[in-house]
Amino acid sequence: MKSFTRLSLTVLLAASVHRVSANFQHTAATPLIISSIVPLGEYNLTVWSESSAPPVAIAEPATVACGTNDVTCSGSHKATSSICNQLINQLSANGGTVIGNSPRSICLGQGGNQCCVSWSAAVGNMPQGDLFNAANKVFHSCFGTTISGLARNVELNGGCVTQCLSNRPTGCE
């Protein structure tokens, strides 16, 4: 019998956010439900959501230096670089695929390891490709065998958020 590992690309929704800038802070999540699963070759794209996600305010781009993608590397919650590279390639390859109103992270996992790109506030429907620039900048700025870092002042769908690249779906610090 032939055995293989199926890679999994997952989109998660954080329950609520109390602070939009710098760090991700959230309370215990209410149960999440799978709203869709889409096979992508050897990957599965799973979108997680909750039925009554509260709206989260995001900073208007004009009030901060939005779009600068200011990177800070972290020593916590490091993900394997090769998996992060695959995740970033998937964001680029599926750049036109629209993700729903309030998913808050996309994770790629293999063999118990995962790399996630997550963002600090719900920004509405947006193409996956919008996550590429900041994720790629963190990847190249914080590159090593493992990676964890964040980009502040990221413009996503008209809002200004913090975006992380780490081994967890709820932030990197």
TrEMBL record:
Keywords: Signal. Residues 1-22 form the signal peptide. Residues 69-172 form the WD-like domain. InterPro entries: WD-like_fungi. It comes from the Eukaryota. This is WD-like domain-containing protein. It comes from Favolaschia claudopus.
